[in-house]
Each structure stands twice: as structure tokens, then as C-alpha cells.
Specification:
This protein is mostly beta strands. It has helices at about 335-345, 370-375, 405-459, and strands at about 10-15, 20-25, 30-35, 40-45, 55, 65-70, 75-80, 85, 95-100, 105-110, 115-120, 125-130, 135-140, 145-150, 160-165, 165-170, 175-185, 190-195, 200-205, 210-215, 220-225, 230-235, 240-245, 250-255, 260-265, 275-280, 285-290, 295-300, 315-320, 345-350, 360-365, 380. The chain is globular and about 75 Å long.
Length: about 450
């Protein structure tokens, strides 16, 4: 049985972005937090009180994804400007940029060994790159719509991706083949991730659901319908027993995967919660929202290593069975949410720098107990929560069933031709990238030869 030591508590609260926060990640040593935003900036927040935050200005459009490398020495960012940047998270803000795709880059993810990157794009492709010299390795091309997310498995042998084509694909990294496709029918997945054991995956869907599948049996193990809006993000606790989700309904939910039920509902952001991520130890998690705020929470969850795989639910968990906010059993937890929100605000003054240099962000923490304030906007669901609502059956009927056969056939033919065109463009782009790499190597070789000749002449 999993349990919480005490309720999750808000520890720190940062302001500095000028638009929606889109992505958040915590460094391995818990000293820094990286965020991306629609304001085109990457920000590095220092957890040590009174230390400055760094604003990195290099992207020319919205930043959709950020992640620390395993060592914490690099931060990767993906942008609508079609590039990926690798930053050194220090005041100098040194970075290397490379054009990764022909459309917006939605996601970037480091492999476990820190040697490779995987990117996902609106050009319908997934690409794998070396971190050193950002050399293109290969692309995966079977999605037929924007690819929202791509992730390496814990052992780096598999790649997981999700797309607006309502599919989630599992790829073998070595053979570069799609080994299984999971289908979403009501909506599409915004984000997917591997369970720390590598045997399960979870998907955050636009239909408000969270699903967990076993990648060996390809069966759905758990289905949670706990949000009243789009689920934008999720993150597994590194112990494997908990999953946190972030939604446009302005809440985050902590799910108990061992018992298959909702454990906590967290209120803090004013508006949609767009991203959430556990730290590498699970001791903290960070969240970002459309309110331009970044929040750091202490999880207070047991770090018990998963002894068994995630077990199937007998019944799906639905938010309709959760106690209402005015529940008489916990009146003190929901009595003054708005007052609580103002109590935990930590102001940060931002001074813009020049030429990608870090800004001077002074963080002044307010005195008082943040954890006490958090109680009024943290709603814990009782362990006896259950639902009589059975898992919804997969709908397989197509919406075009009423179309005349000739028209349906024509549409299918057009779609087939578009798929062929997409694959052709992807192949051409792949060849172009390889050509660019070869030209780069030739130029470097010519420069080396030139230097050798120059030294010979001088001698």
C-alpha cells in the first residue's frame, strides 16, 4: 500500500515569464528549475534563496519544451521557430542552436545516457540526434498529423510518441520500426511518458482522461476520468507508485497507481495548468500555468520502490465520485482558496540583460509557513473513493459511415496520396540533413588542411 507522509505543500513561487509557461523540468541536484514559455524565453530559476534567475533569449518564437540533461550540465529547448537549442544553465547563457525540423518543434527529450536527443514536430516526424555536434541520426515517419511528444524509455531501447492523428506509437530505436500503435478515440494525447519500470506508459488526453497501458500485453491497465478539462501534462513519481497530472480545469491530481484511485486534487494556479514534473528523487514537483507562474511543491509522498507492475483497475476512476468542494468532511481544506493563493506568492524582480545574457532575478521569499497556506487549496480525496462507472467501451464506428461509397473512396485515395507526399518530403529532408552534415565535415577538413599548410609554410 502506498501512502502520503502529509499533504503536498507549496514551497516556492516564481514570477518572471510574460506569457503562458509551457514546460518545466527540475535539475538532478534540485538546485535549478528550467521553464519554457510562449514569450520565447527559457528561464532558469535557482532554488537557493536570494539567487538570481536567468532569462535566456535566443529563440525567435514560443518555446514548447525544456529538459535538463541527466548530468544537469545542459538544458535543451524546443521552439516554434523550428530550432532546438542546447544551453549551459549559467549566467553566461551560452547556447548552440540547430534547425531540427521544417515546422514547430513540440518536444525535446534526452536519452538516459545523455548522448542523444529525440525531437517531435508539427512536420509529422520524430528525429534522433547526437548531443555532441548535434548530428542527425535518423527519423521516424509514420504519424500522419502533428507529433506532440516523444520520449526515450528508461533503458533507451524504445521511443514513445503521440500525435494529433489520435495514435500513440511505440518504436524500436535500433530497428527504427513501429512495434505497436495504441489508439485514442475521443481525443488525442498531449503528452506521453514511460513508467520508471519501463513496462507501462501513460497518456494525458484532450478528452480529459488519463490512461495507463502495459507495453508488453498492449492492454489498458488503468483509466482515470478525474479532470473536467483537457489534460495537458503528467509525470510519474520516480518510485513508480504515483502519477501527477495537470489540466486546463486549473487543477493537478495525484493518482495512486497501486490502488488505482485519486489521492489528491491540488489548486494553486489561476487558469489552466499547462505542465508538471517530478524531481529526480520525487521529493518535489514543479508546475507551470497560463497565469505565467511557476510553483514548486514538496510532494510528501512515500518513496517506496515499485515491487510489482502497475495493476489493472477493476473500475475506472471518475471525478463525478469525488467529494464536492463544500464537503462537510474537510471544510478547512477548501474554505479560503483565494486568500491562500495570495499568502504563498513570492515576488521576483526581473532585469533584462543583453545578447542572451542572464537577467538579474532577485527572489524574495515571504516569511511564514507556506505549507500551512497550502492546506486551504489542497483537497485530499478519501481512500475509499470508488466509482461504479465501468470503463467506456472503445468506439470503433467511423464518422463518415453515412457518406456515399464513391465519395468515401475518393477521400481515402486523397488521404493515401497525402501520406505518400508527407513521407516523400520527410525522406528528402532527411537526405538534405545528411548532405548538410557531410558539407560541414568537408569544410572542417578543409580548414584543418589549410592550417597544416600554413604551419608548414611558416616552418
Amino acid at each position: 500500500m502506498t501512502s502520503a507522509l502529509s499533504d503536498p505543500a507549496l514551497e516556492r513561487h516564481f514570477r518572471g515569464h510574460k506569457d503562458n509557461v509551457t514546460s518545466v523540468d527540475i535539475s538532478c541536484n534540485m538546485k535549478q528549475i528550467a521553464t519554457g514559455s510562449m514569450d520565447s524565453c527559457v528561464m532558469i530559476w535557482n532554488m537557493k534563496p536570494q539567487m538570481r534567475a536567468y532569462r535566456f533569449e535566443g529563440h525567435k518564437d514560443a518555446v514548447f519544451s525544456v529538459q535538463f540533461s541527466t548530468s544537469g550540465h545542459l538544458v535543451a529547448s524546443a521552439s516554434r521557430d523550428k530550432t532546438v537549442r542546447l544551453w549551459v544553465p549559467s549566467m553566461k547563457a551560452e547556447s548552440t542552436a540547430f534547425r531540427a525540423h521544417t515546422a514547430s518543434v513540440r518536444c525535446v527529450n534526452f536519452s538516459g545516457d545523455g548522448q542523444t536527443l529525440v525531437t517531435a514536430s508539427d512536420d509529422k516526424t520524430i528525429k534522433v540526434w547526437t548531443v555532441h555536434r548535434q548530428k542527425f541520426l535518423f527519423s521516424l515517419n509514420q504519424h500522419i498529423n502533428w507529433v506532440r511528444c516523444a520520449r526515450f524509455s528508461p533503458d533507451d531501447c524504445l521511443i514513445l510518441s503521440c500525435s494529433d492523428d489520435k495514435t500513440i506509437k511505440l518504436w524500436d530505436k535500433n530497428s527504427r520500426e513501429c512495434i505497436h500503435t495504441f489508439y485514442e478515440h475521443a481525443g488525442y494525447a498531449n503528452l506521453v511518458d514511460f513508467h520508471p519500470s519501463g513496462t507501462c506508459i501513460a497518456a494525458a488526453s484532450t478528452d480529459g482522461s488519463v490512461k495507463v497501458w502495459d507495453i508488453r500485453s498492449h492492454k489498458m491497465l488503468q483509466h482515470y476520468q478525474v479532470h473536467n478539462g483537457v489534460v495537458n501534462s503528467l509525470s510519474f513519481h520516480p518510485g513508480g507508485n504515483f502519477l501527477i497530472t495537470a489540466s486546463s480545469d486549473s487543477t493537478m491530481k495525484i493518482l495512486d497507481l497501486v490502488e488505482g484511485k485519486l489521492l489528491y486534487t491540488l489548486h494553486g494556479h489561476q487558469g489552466p495548468v499547462t505542465c508538471v514534473s517530478f524531481s529526480r528523487t520525487g521529493e518535489y514537483f514543479a508546475s507551470g500555468g497560463s497565469d505565467e507562474q511557476v510553483m514548486v511543491w514538496k510532494s510528501n509522498l512515500d518513496y517506496t520502490e515499485y515491487s510489482d507492475d502497475v495493476k489493472p483497475q477493476h473500475k475506472s476512476t471518475s471525478s463525478s465520485q469525488a467529494p464536492p468542494a463544500s464537503s462537510t468532511s474537510h471544510p478547512h481544506l477548501t474554505s479560503h482558496p483565494s486568500v491562500c493563493h495570495s499568502q504563498v506568492t513570492e515576488s521576483s524582480e526581473l532585469l533584462n540583460g543583453r545578447d542572451h545574457t542572464a537577467a538579474n532575478m532577485q527572489c524574495r521569499e515571504r516569511s511564514g509557513s507556506h505549507s500551512r497556506a497550502t492546506h486551504s487549496h489542497t483537497h485530499r480525496h478519501p481512500r475509499s473513493i470508488s466509482s461504479t462507472h465501468q470503463q467506456t467501451q472503445v468506439q470503433t464506428q467511423q464518422s463518415d459511415a453515412g457518406l456515399p461509397p464513391d465519395l468515401a473512396g475518393t477521400l481515402e485515395h486523397i488521404i493515401g496520396q497525402l501520406d505518400i507526399l508527407t513521407q516523400t518530403v520527410s525522406i528528402l529532408e532527411q537526405r538534405l540533413t545528411l548532405t548538410e552534415d557531410k558539407l560541414k565535415e568537408c569544410l572542417e577538413n578543409q580548414m584543418e588542411i589549410g592550417l597544416h599548410l600554413q604551419r608548414g609554410e611558416e616552418a
